[in-house]
């Protein structure tokens, strides 16, 4: 299993959706493709924006399909961060229902 | 080459309500002006929004090689002192400042900060959001991440979080779309409990951004007003992320939509200008002189923002629909690190 310390990657607060997309394709998806499960540790992260949650989690589902959430784990997220992650995943699922498949 | 000096006299009061419209009528210089003199002798009052609009306009002129000078600023009367403390003049190359700190005069303000559009811009956006929120809302507890982790039950500060959230979205908007330089300032008025955040850029405007990014919406946008309204619709963005490995990724396109709705739910006001279009509290109008970039000013009540986390949930449901964010599959990814199904 691969653990990403999100505080060290994005700081206390982040709305940096450009970074989220780069991180998704350069680190997260390659690790998944190697067969690793992923833990996103949000200890010390106070806030992410909806743009960030969508860029990372909705695009993860768009790229890898709905079953990918069985291979990820979210730890130490506060209510605001958890909410953005939930919405990002739900938006990704919505996209998959509307388009029928992953990218 | 002949020097053609244009003189502009700013008279009276420029509030957020009508200040932009009044300024737009004044800020007409023609294509041949090489020097502009701004006379502030008769300026009696200027609010954050119009001041920001004036700053963006003058910075845009400077970028085109036009020289800017001021008269009537020596007496440091009320509005001049305020503009000076906001670093309005120093950003325009006029070096005299009133170096008082940001917590005086029974109000809290954040002087103008430049928004970087360089490779260092990522840290710039986060640092800006935190410093503005700290100045306006006060210090937050320092996190000791060695010993401390967030849980669902820690105290929250909706006001602080709402400022961070708003500034982050506004700054990223400038960095991702404008192709220009941005400036942001903020003010909290304790007496009225109102917070204002104003941001402006010298870029290509919203319509220009749709066109430049080859957005599918560009063909349907006929003028600046339709571009501005389109940008405020949910799940509309001119930005797609190109990725050579997997194709494109979508931008959520909800940043400005959410901010506009948050303002609406907190007895606040939302004002935006791009090109010749102005939107204020839902009413659109045409400016006398178009502004090349984009300007946004948010005003909201602090008290209402204490419920920021709940308001944000309501906004998401309103604009993204009743999605199931608590399904068993989603619940399973949170919580115990050593969950047996993991």
Any key phrases for this structure?
heterodimer; A: 103 residues; alpha/beta; 3-stranded parallel sheet; two-stranded parallel sheet; 4 helices; 5 strands; globular; B: 342 residues; Transcription Regulator spoIIAA; Heat Shock Protein 90; 2 domains; 5-stranded antiparallel sheet; 12 strands; disordered C terminus
Most residues in contact: chain pair? A-B, 57 and 55 residues
Which percent range fits the helix content of chain B? 25-40%
Q: What's the total helix number of chain B?
A: 12
Number of domains of chain B: 2
Any overview of this molecule?
- The complex is a heterodimer of chains A (103) and B (342).
- The longest helix of chain A has 21 residues, at 79-99.
- Chain A is built from four helices and five strands; from the N terminus they run E-H-E-H-E-E-H-E-H.
- Chain A has helices at residues 6-10, 17-33, 50-64, 79-99; strands spanning 2-5, 13-14, 38-41, 47-48, 72-75.
- In chain A, helix 2 (17-33) runs parallel beside helix 3 (50-64) and helix 3 packs across helix 4 (79-99).
- Chain B is α/β, with parallel strands linked by helices.
- Chain B folds into two domains: 1-96, Transcription Regulator spoIIAA, CATH 3.30.750; 106-322, 2-Layer Sandwich (Heat Shock Protein 90).
- A five-stranded antiparallel sheet of chain B has the order 6-7-8-12-11, with helices on both faces. A three-stranded parallel sheet of chain B has the order 1-3-5, covered by helices on one side. Chain B has a two-stranded parallel sheet with strand order 2-4.
- In chain B, helix 5 packs antiparallel against helix 6 (158-177) and helix 9 packs across helix 11 (308-320).
- The N and C termini of chain B lie far apart (74 Å).
- Mean pLDDT of chain B is 82; it is low at 141-155, 240-247 and 337-342.
- Classes of the chains: A alpha/beta (103), B alpha/beta (342).
- At the A-B interface, strand 2, helix 2, helix 3, strand 5 and helix 4 of A face helix 5, helix 6, strand 10 and helix 11 of B.
């Amino acid at each position: 299993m691969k653990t990403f310390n999100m505080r060290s990657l994005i700081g206390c607060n982040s709305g940096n959706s450009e970074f989220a997309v780069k991180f998704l394709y350069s680190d997260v998806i390659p690790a998944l493709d190697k067969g690793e499960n992923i833990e996103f540790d949000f200890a010390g992260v106070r806030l992410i924006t909806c743009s960030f949650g969508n860029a990372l989690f909705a695009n993860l589902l768009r790229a890898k399909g709905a079953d990918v959430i069985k291979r990820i784990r979210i730890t130490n997220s506060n209510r605001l961060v958890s909410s953005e992650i939930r919405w990002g995943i739900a938006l990704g699922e919505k996209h998959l229902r509307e388009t029928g498949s992953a990218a | 080459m002949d020097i053609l000096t244009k003189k502009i006299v700013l008279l009276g009061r420029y509030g957020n309500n009508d200040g932009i419209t009044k300024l737009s009528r004044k800020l007409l210089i023609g294509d041949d002006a090489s020097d502009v003199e701004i006379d502030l002798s008769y300026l009696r009052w200027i609010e954050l929004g119009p001041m920001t609009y004036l700053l963006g306009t003058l910075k845009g002129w400077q970028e085109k090689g036009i020289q800017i000078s001021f008269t009537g600023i020596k007496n440091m009367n009320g509005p001049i002192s305020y503009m000076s403390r906001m670093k309005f003049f120093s950003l325009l190359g006029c070096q005299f400042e009133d170096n008082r700190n940001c917590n005086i005069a029974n109000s809290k303000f954040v002087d103008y900060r430049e928004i970087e559009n360089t490779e260092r811009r990522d840290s710039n956006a986060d640092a800006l959001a935190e410093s503005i929120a700290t100045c306006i809302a006060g210090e937050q507890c320092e996190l000791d991440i060695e010993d401390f982790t967030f849980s669902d039950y820690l105290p929250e500060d909706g006001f602080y979080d709402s400022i961070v959230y708003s500034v982050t979205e506004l700054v990223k908007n400038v960095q991702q779309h404008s192709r220009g330089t941005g400036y942001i300032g903020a003010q909290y008025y304790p007496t009225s409990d109102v917070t204002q955040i104003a941001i402006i850029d010298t870029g290509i405007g919203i319509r220009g951004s749709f066109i430049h990014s080859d957005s599918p919406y560009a063909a349907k946008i006929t003028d600046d007003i339709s571009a501005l309204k389109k940008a405020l619709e949910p799940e509309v963005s001119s930005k797609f992320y190109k990725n050579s490995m997997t194709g494109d990724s979508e931008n959520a396109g909800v940043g400005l939509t959410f901010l506009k709705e948050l303002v609406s739910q907190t007895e606040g006001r939302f004002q935006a200008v791009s090109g010749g279009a102005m939107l204020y509290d839902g009413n659109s109008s045409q400016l006398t002189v178009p502004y090349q970039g984009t300007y946004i000013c948010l005003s909201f009540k602090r008290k209402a923002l204490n419920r920021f986390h709940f308001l944000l949930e309501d906004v998401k449901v309103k604009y993204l629909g009743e999605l199931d964010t608590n399904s068993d599959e989603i619940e399973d990814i949170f919580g115990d690190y050593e969950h047996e199904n993991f």
